[in-house]
Amino acid sequence: MNKVVAFVQGASRGIGLHFAKDLAKKPNAFVIASCRDPDNAVNLQALSNQVNNVDLLRIDVTNEDDIKHAAVYIKEKYNSKLDLLINIAGMLSPSGRGETSLREVSVQALEETFKVNTFGPLLVAKHFGQFLQNGNGGFGAKSESEKLKHSGVLVNMSAKVGSIGDNSLGGWYSYRLSKAALNMVTKNLSIELGRGRKKVICVSLHPGSVDTDLSRPYLKSIPTERLFSPEYSVSCLMNVIDNLNVHDTGKFFSWDGSELPY
Ligand SMILES: NC(=O)c1ccc[n+]([C@@H]2O[C@H](COP(=O)([O-])OP(=O)(O)OC[C@H]3O[C@@H](n4cnc5c(N)ncnc54)[C@H](OP(=O)(O)O)[C@@H]3O)[C@@H](O)[C@H]2O)c1
């Protein structure tokens, strides 16, 4: 059985933690899980102590040196090869709440949010994208002929509120802008990493409304039938990832596999 190597960036809690747990259950998977403070990521520590296929790394995505050091580690330990990279770390805003009007907009909040939500995933792609070009296409496209056409999958965890076409409510300037720009990162990566014989499939995904620390201030406004557990969201997103093929690259998909407008 071919081993597949998955890298979950932002795995300390919420959706990222559940991706690490889900991927660790795959018998043929090695999971590299990064977070900014592994010593205090108790749930992730517990996972890596329970299983023998989860490797913890320290990355604060606002620090390019952390990303560079992690890339050197993967080069040496995993032979410069990745099959799946999921950029998950994200924040709503430094205050934990989205701006409701222009009065609340500040350069400092915009900068901090962009550093985590947009520049972080871009820098991770800068240092790790080449590793996906060396992968075996262990995720996505079920048929053998489709698998041959791609070497790896890069996922940027976006949000439906980052869709310009879908925006009917306004507000949440820092978050909406940072995720809209992240979608442009996905599109650009799909072009650059889609050149050559073995292509990397690059997509943005929306996980639905998920019960995590990020969404906690807004839980009361989300109808219970539309609020997902992280486990459910991740199982839906894994299904989307497993069914991707090269023609999907550069696109933005929701948790149920439907395409979202940029
Ligand atoms: N929950 C939702 O309803 C929802 C909806 C749409 C999109 N999303 C997206 O899904 C992703 C995960 O969100 P979540 O709901 O799971 O949120 P969460 O539970 O608040 O988790 C956020 C994660 O981001 C990490 N992080 C924040 N700043 C970081 C940095 N500078 N470097 C490295 N890691 C950093 C956190 O690590 P620490 O533990 O170190 O703080 C944590 O692991 C985000 O990109 C979010 O925008 C979520």
UniProtKB/TrEMBL annotation:
InterPro entries the record matches: Fungal_SecMetab_SDRs, NAD(P)-bd_dom_sf, SDR_fam
Signal peptide: none
Superkingdom assignment: Eukaryota
Family the UniProt entry places it in: Belongs to the short-chain dehydrogenases/reductases (SDR) family.
Name of the protein this chain belongs to: Uncharacterized protein LOC106469171 isoform X1
UniProt source species: Limulus polyphemus
